[in-house]
Amino acid sequence: MTRSRLAVWKFASCDGCQLTLLDCEDELLQLAQRLEISHFLEAATAPAPGPYDLSLVEGSITTAQDAELIRQVRAASRYLVTIGACATAGGVQALRNTADVAEYRAVVYAQPQYIDTLATSTPISAHVPVDFELRGCPIDRGQLIEVITAYLAGRTPDVPKHSVCFECKRRGTVCVTVAHGTPCLGPVTHAGCGALCPAYARGCYGCFGPSNSTNLPAFVPLLRRDGLAGPDSVRLLRTFNTAAPEFDTAARQIAEEAEG
Amino acid sequence: MTDEDSRELHLGPLGRVEGEGSLHLVLRDGELAEARLAIYEPPRFFEAFLRGRAHTEPPDLTSRICGICPVAYQLSACRAIEDACGVRVEGQVAALRRLLYCGEWIESQALHVHLLHAPDFHGCDSAIELARTHREDVARGLRIKQAGNAIVELLGGRAIHPVNVRLGGFHRVPTRAELRPLAELLRRVREDAVAAVRWVSGFDFPDAVCDADLFALAEPDRYAIESGTPTVLRGDGDRRGTVNTFPLAEFSAHVVEHQVPYSTALHSRLDGRRHLTGSLARFAMSGHLLPAELLDLAVAGGLGDPRTGAVCRNPYRSIVIRAIEVLYAVDEAMRIIDAYRAPPRPYTPVPARATTGHGATEAPRGLLYHRYTLAADGTVTDAVLVPPTAQNQGAIEADVEHAVRARLAVGPPAGDTELATLSERAIRNHDPCISCSAHFLRLSLER
User: Fold this and answer.
1) pTM score
2) SUPFAM superfamilies from the entry (chain A) (predicted)?
């Protein structure tokens, strides 16, 4: 049986989503029997040239070179899956999108002229067609295994598209908003983490990005009711999925109202 | 370059490191003229976008600098902001923080030892290739790593970017009963951790001396992990001479960052000299505080005996130190769990005030420093983050120079592939985390 050729790529990111693959200890050596790891720099030193059957892409596009490289990766890949909030929604570095990047450069670097960067951090889908997007900061290990096994079986991954609230109910966690008045992004956030934060007595902070059916205009007043001032809500929406359209639009509206 | 004696080697991107970097070597007339470790990880501007955020946010935000050591970022951030606000976290909550950090040490060091570093000692490209001949050794490494992940998952919710850490402690603390399965898992994995030390002790280590001052946090009575005083051991000889300390608040006066044109990571010097943080430095500073059983393993593993003042400066042997640190963290985690009683409240409130605070902890790769300046309402007005790999860049470049020069001085002419392999090994000894620094390796060689 021929093994499928897997490639793992990194753009602007923290390496955490790639590490999720290395955290599949029980499955790793078994997966290696079905997949030939052709390109995975974090784990191996000898990358093999394409084409690749399955490419997992971590990170966002923040430089001109990376914008070119992702096109090459797309051309060399039969099936391309983006993994994590950077690749699907620009990541935390997309905070630059609403700021002055020249000023950012000057804050961090004494000689900003050496630093080559774009004014925005954009998801992979803004540059090339993407076959499947896996959400999360970081992605969930179980969902990653599901995406890879679905690919090997030739079927669509079974990854839920509903909100964190569904997972909270399934887990049997008492609603932190109803019981304690804790602000929580659960109702508008994509499932996948297993509703971790409420299980640890904190409100969801939206690291999986928006779910498939959000109603942020109805949701934002609830944050206000639970004690968040305008700037607090803007910051809550602008963390790891800043460039996700639903969160971005809501954050801009709240910011305008606050200035209003 | 066609001239055999003068060429330029560009190696990259580096494999089996976290992030993206490259190495540029320049050879003239058969001699090494220059070695430059370039980090070309795209800049992500954390220090800039932290400005204007609330003082409660840096623990979660800065953890996204590095998926390999998020706990290090969360706890360095907490300590810096708690320092600014005049809050001390003590008792069982402080113990839980050390337990969480032990989890990260176990998984991160086991990852480096087995998956990233060990393949170098067996001429393999990856741990998957290594597993063909050493399946049980790699599988054992994965079991150890899993135990570390289990600690972080239980205390933090997940192994990467845990959600339970907050200023002053945790959102929720576990009951004693919830920790019991961890203790049983650690008891089972301890034997694996001892076997891993013995396994790596038997590797073939090239001779090398890291020519840099050693820099680590130190505590009077235990191996420093999540707190301590910055301590420096001058870089000469294999004996522990005098050590100098300075208050953490003076960090920026001693460790001075500067920018080089070929890298997106800032380089740094300690009192104007090259310095190294990480396992070698920690073991030199705190090794004598380890339990006798671990010290006997260290002596058997060729590290010398820190109780007699011996200092190991061979970067290749850092793999033995990492394995011993894993074993120490397993024992320490069991000790903390055994003594644990749930504290009355999971966190101490940390009300904001207008000041500057400093925090440092020992990330698996070395000393990680955070500094924040807050406004009265808690808004962050300034943030400085100094990761270990950025500090280590100068020492890593020097190690590459030593390795390449030593090779060029003997034997037949060295080909590009051999120099590349040699250089990569010298770099991987320090487990560089380039995601941290930019905020790996293409070798380019000029001849």
Assistant:
1) 0.95
2) HydA/Nqo6-like (SSF56770)
Q: What Cα–Cα distance (Å) separates residue A12 from each residue in A84, B16, B20?
A: 11, 17, 10
Angle between helices B91-110 and B70-85 (to 10 degrees): 150
Predicted pLDDT of residue B50: 95
Distance from CA of A73 to the nearest CA of B (A): 15
Q: In chain A, which residues have their Cβ closer than 8 Å to the Cβ of B422?
A: none
- Per-residue pLDDT of A66-105, as tens digits, reads 999 999 999 999 999 999 999 999 999 999 998 888 888 8
Predicted local distance difference test score (pLDDT) of residue B384? 92
- Over residues B186-239, the pLDDT tens digits come to 999 999 999 999 999 999 999 999 989 999 999 999 999 999 999 999 877 778
Q: Is A64 on the interface with B (CB under 8 A)?
A: no
Closest CA to B388 of B161, B99, B69: B69
Tell whether B192 lies on the interface with A, counting CB pairs under 8 A. no
* Residue A67 in contact with partner chain B when CB distance is under 8 A: no
Q: Do A44 and B16 touch (CB under 8 A)?
A: yes
The minimum CA-CA distance between A152 and chain B, rounded to whole Å, is 20
B138 vs A: CB within 8 A: yes
> Position of tokens 């490639």?
A7
List, as residue ranges, the binding site of B.
47, 66, 69, 385, 433, 436, 439
